Amino acid sequence: MILTCPECATSYFVDDSRIPEAGRTVKCASCGARWTAKREMGEFTSADEAEAAPAPEPAAAPHPGDATPDDDLDIIAVEREPEPEPRRRPPASAKDESKGKVLVWASAAAVVVALVAGAIMFRGDVVRMWPRSQAAYASLGLSANSLGLVIEDLHAEPTFVGGRPVLSVTGAIRNVKDETVTSPAIRVNLLNRLGKPIAAKIAKPIDPRVPAGATRHFAIAISDPPANARDLEVVFETAAQRAASAPITPIAPPAPTEARPLPAGSPDALPEHG
C-alpha cells in the first residue's frame, strides 16, 4: 500500500502485511512527522455472504518479532514517476521547407500566367474599358480590336487628277461581331522611310452602320501626297487612336507661283499683238 505524509505530502510504499487492522504509528523519513496509518478497507460483502461465511479462526498469539500498533515503522519513500513531457512537433526539415517554397512560387506563377492569358484573350474588352491600354498591346505586337470591325483588302494607287498627283486608297470594313456596329472615321497615315507619320487624312464613311458579318467598302483620295512618303497605314479614328497618334499634318496644296512673261527671243514666247 502507499502512505502519504499529511505534513509534507511525501508518498511511501509499505507492505500491507506490516500494517495491522488496528493501525500502526509510522514516521515520515523526510520531515519526521508521525501519524497512525491504517490498512485500507476491503470490498463490502452482502448480508447473505456474511452469514454464509465461516467463523474466523482464533488469531495466533503474536510472536516477539511481530509489529504492534505502538511500534514505529520505518518507511521508504516511493519515487514518483516523472510526468511525461508534452510531445513536441519535430522541426521541419530543410527538404520540407524547400517543398513549401516551391509550392508557393508555383502557385504565384500560375496566377500570373492566368492573368496574362486573360489579358491577351480578352484584350478587346480591356481596351474598351481602358482605351490607353491599346498602346501597350501595340508595343507587344498585339492588335486589340475593341470595335468588332476590321479593315482589309487595302490597295493604294498613285494617279493624277486634273494634272495633280493623287494617292487613291481603297479597302473594306468588315463587322466580325454578331450585332450591328457603327464604324468610326477612318484615318490614313502616310509614313516616311523610318515608319513615322508625316501626313494624315481622316474620312468618315457614308453609311457608318455595319450589320453583323457585313462589309462596307471605302475609297479615299489624298491629293499632293508628300514626296518622302514611303508607306501608309489605315486605322479607325477612335479616342484611343487619337491619343496615341501624332498630330495631323495637313496636306496643303502647292503654293501658287508668280507667272512672268517669257523673254521676247524665247521660242515659246507668244507673239505680241499690236
Kindly describe this structure.
20% of the residues lie in helices and 27% in strands. A hairpin with a 6-residue loop joins strand 3 (24-27) and strand 4 (34-37). The protein starts with a strand and ends in a 30-residue tail after the last helix. The protein folds into 3 domains: 1-40 and 68-81; 97-146, no CATH class; 148-244, Immunoglobulin-like (Sandwich), CATH 2.60.40. It has 274 residues and is of the alpha+beta class. The chain has a 3-stranded antiparallel sheet with strand order 1-2-6, with no helix packed on it. Strands 4-3-5 form a 3-stranded mixed sheet, with no helix packed on it. The protein has helices at residues 47-52, 94-121, 123-129, 133-139, 239-244; strands at 2-4, 11-13, 24-27, 34-37, 73-74, 76-77, 149-161, 164-175, 181-182, 186-191, 197-203, 209-210, 215-223, 231-236. Residues 43-50 and 58-70 have low confidence and may be disordered.
